[in-house]
DUF423 domain-containing protein
Amino acid sequence: MIRLFLMLAAFSGFTGVALGAFAAHGLKTRLSADYLAVFQTGVHYQLIHALALFGVALLALYQPGKLVNTAGALFALGILLFSGSLYLLTLVGISRFGIVTPIGGAAFLGGWLCLGLAAWRMA
């Protein structure tokens, strides 16, 4: 799992930076200010949780366990659902994608809860 979490962290960090640059330079004139802000929110949360995945991978080296693995899985799912739905919402313009966003947010919250519980149980 450590390798998977590191690879997901690297992929999420890379694509987060690329999408942020794309928004700043390529979408500035194509999206409304509101949609650009929504897209940037997706980038922001993706980059934060790329770092969280990196932290989970490091923690799994020293304190492997089900809670740590679940935290990493929920962070990855949250990136996909939360940030992904915001990207689709702004680029495709189908507002129905917005219904997925809170599910991704709940995955982020679950990941942080699992990480906190893992920390609580550490010796």
User: Anything to note?
Assistant: The CA atoms of residues 63 and 122 lie 8 Å apart. The first helix runs from residue 2 to 25. The mean pLDDT is 95. The helical segments are 2-25, 33-62, 66-92, 101-120.
